[in-house]
Automatic annotation (TrEMBL):
InterPro entries from the UniProt entry: Dimeric_a/b-barrel
Source taxon at top rank: Bacteria
The name this protein goes by in its record: NIPSNAP domain-containing protein
Record organism: Flavobacterium panici
Amino acid sequence: MSNLTQQNSENIQVLEIRNYLLKPNLTNKFRDYFHSKFVTPMNELGGYTLGEFKIDNTNDRFVWFRGFTDMKTRLEFLNDFYVNSAIWKEYGKGANEMMINSDNVYLLRPLKEDINSEQLKTDKTFTVVDFYICNNTLEKVIELFETTYIPFLKNLKIEDITLWVSEMAENDFPRLPVFQDKNLLVSITHYKDENEFYAKQKEIDSMPAYLKNSMQELITIQNQLVLLNLDS
């Protein structure tokens, strides 16, 4: 089950996708340390851990989602946790010693409306994050997704999906850098297991030619992050 206290169901307006590069072969050790030392205190302060992941066949990456109800509570949390909390003062050094880089972070907001935390927390095994960089075409890509691509996915019974764009408000805690790309669209999709993911991927690859051509014309770069859920 999720790390967020079960009785809480928060509307998430701000999401961080945090992708840490660790020292070799430390993914499992780091995750155990992170989960035991930080998750409960962060949730209590309003920085909600909404997923902990590893990358398949990779032992030096730890990816996690952290959500906030808005940018104001994000700033309050970051100060409360990283500046003022006894937890970080006691255990932060141990986490940093296992990391090479922690600056690969995307700061996002929901495309249309708040996303309930229950839509991100999952017991499914596979979570896929697609990054679509759309140079000067973002609005057209969003329209294509809403009118054609998302209905196509739903017709394939791919429905556990949320859409995000960059939160462009100032990152008012510069101690933790983030990517803020005005040309970015992000989708987060959950799959039951490996078999479902690869089966659905084949169906997606066989999309109608007109849809594939439209996406290729409008999307400059697409990158995909396939994650294994450590909470499942």
